[in-house]
Amino acid sequence: MPAPIRAVVLLSGGLDSAVTLACARADPDGPRACHALSFDYGQRHRSELRAAARVAEHLGAAEHRVVAIDLRAIGGSALTGELAVPKRRADEPDPSGPARIPVTYVPARNLTFLSIAAGWAEVLGAPEIWLGVNAVDYSGYPDCRPDFIHAFERVLAVGTRAGVEGRALRVRTPLLHWSKARIIREGAARGVDFSLTRSCYDPDEAGRACGACESCVLRARGFDEAGVIDPTPYSADATRPARRGAP
Amino acid sequence: MPAPIRAVVLLSGGLDSAVTLACARADPDGPRACHALSFDYGQRHRSELRAAARVAEHLGAAEHRVVAIDLRAIGGSALTGELAVPKRRADEPDPSGPARIPVTYVPARNLTFLSIAAGWAEVLGAPEIWLGVNAVDYSGYPDCRPDFIHAFERVLAVGTRAGVEGRALRVRTPLLHWSKARIIREGAARGVDFSLTRSCYDPDEAGRACGACESCVLRARGFDEAGVIDPTPYSADATRPARRGAP
């Protein structure tokens, strides 16, 4: 039996990256030996890192590493503590308008994370990086779009040892064109325990979701549309996000 | 008088990045307001960071920030402590051969540093990132080549807020096609105090150069060819790199 293909999988502790890891573990061309990578970047929602460790173990990753990087030194996002996380209900429009990039955008975050993942993939001799970006319910982040992924693969082809030596790294993005509801259904089909995942941008001390931030709203809507019960714990004073058609 | 154009300048404390900062400060289109950026990435040669701070002040940078990033968590390079730094004399060929990428290559390092610089440039509203890469005396690193820089600019155009909003970031690389000797002459013409810069991959406790690593060898050869005296201090037991034509 040939050795399994190695893959670096970016794992945030959220729903999308957990489903991405499950896809890599259940790939039709053989389960990948998954080297899960998370970042401690001064994020408000550090319960993500504990969730990532649990998800990595649950889905049989070969290992899980956390790279510390102090993005607070360059500031600029609600997710690293400089601005307030906006709250809105599912039925409210984004006050910044649909064409705006939200304040929770961390400048060049996916680019930075992919770059470090590429470095680790080179060290491991892994030909693939898996990333849970999504261009449907993508919150308006420019680094979640197909054009970005393609341009980044070109950078890897010309700017890494692996690329120069003819072993260009691929960026695998199975969720790219899936709705949030489909992501949840595909994850459920691959045995993802959603109770281990965290999506909230502003959880309480115990890691329970606020129910009001953009990420909570998108998650609740996705579970609603998928017809799946979300086992996420909510904080005591949270208003559970409104469900379409609920009384 | 219009406000000066802001620029993020990657500053390692070495010779090339110091000359790059000097070029940004003396640009024909007006001196840039330079926001110097260094990385504490677990490098062996941490005297680089002290040198970077001195160089930033000497050349009138608007500020100097250091982002901590623990690349040791993913290993893989002599510069982050996993492998021994190779020593050779200027007149010895590289034993790994001219086509090989040396062990001092840090996987995807420039890619990672440029990505974080792009994030800071977005926060600052700076339209330029300046980087001291060089494709002539470039030590065989794949992320020092023009193709890499162009591919990275494409990533910035499609994957950042600035790019999406029509303010694509430029990567300025004035040293790209200069010989080491020309870099030294251009730096001297712009008033760079080379005694503040550090190039050695393996300095002693006091930050003095070893005289034997690849970086020391390239530097000595460059000063020799430029006809400029290098004020770099060498460690007591160092063999100062051989000069061409010296007795």
Instruction: State the CATH class of the domain at 6-84 and 107-199 in chain A.
Output: Alpha Beta
Model regions low in confidence, pLDDT < 50 over at least 5 residues of chain A: 88-99, 243-247
User: What is the multimeric organization of the chains shown?
Assistant: homodimer
Q: Helix proportion of residues of chain A, in percent?
A: 25-40%
Largest sheet of chain A: 5 strands, parallel
Mean pLDDT of chain A: 84
Secondary structure topology:
Two copies of one chain form a homodimer.
Chain A: E1 6-10, H1 15-25, E2 33-40, H2 47-58, E3 63-68, H3 109-124, E4 128-130, H4 146-159, H5 161-164, E5 170-172, H6 180-189, H7 214-226
Parallel strand pairs in A: 1-2, 1-4, 2-3, 4-5
Helix pairs in contact in A: 1-6, 6-7
Mind explaining what this structure looks like?
Two copies of one chain form a homodimer. In chain A, α1 packs across α6. Chain A contains seven helices and five strands. In chain A, α2 links the parallel β2 and β3. Chain A starts with 5 loop residues before the first strand and ends in a 21-residue tail after the last helix. By secondary structure, chain A is of the alpha/beta class. The longest helix of chain A has 16 residues. Chain A is globular. The first copy, chain A, has a domain of 172 residues: HUPs (Rossmann fold). Chain A is 32% helix and 10% strand. At the A-B interface, β3, α3, α4 and α5 of A face β3, α3, α4 and α5 of B.
